[in-house]
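Example record

The entry below shows one chain as it appears in the dataset: sequence first, then structure tokens.
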Amino acid sequence: MELPKILESKAKIRFQDCDPFNHLNNAAYFNYLINAREDHVIKNYDLDIYKHGKETGKSWVVSTHQIAYLKPAVLMETVTIESQLINYTDKKLFVEIRMFNEEKTILKAVMWSSFTYFNLLKLSSANHSEDLLHLFEQAKLAVKEISFEERVKSLRFQKV
């Protein structure tokens, strides 16, 4: 069975995460996007990163985030969040996460994140196991754009 490559869920923007303008606070986007990705991989790939960390002593740590805020997400709005693995190496994952309005007609934010596989006992980066590399190969959906700026520009003008 082929694994889904673009994963999706919905979230409601909550009061405690908003600024005085009732917009989602810039820093809160990270929580919504990363929490959605964690839920996506558990539900679609049966990969619970916390369970994996306990069992193997290895997990992923954030290396970088790049985010573009395109339209505000507002108080009590339901948003749709999509994520996909866009690339990987022996030690890293590269993920794109997009936030839309509920109907996916308005792109609100795009984030590229890189995660380094990390040995929690040795406190150093680690190589992914063969089974993880196999999963990543099945889950990967590359994008044609090379830079984050090119990708954001492409997505802004793309009909969803």
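Notes for this example: The two ends are 26 Å apart (CA to CA). Residues 4 and 139 are 7 Å apart (CA to CA).
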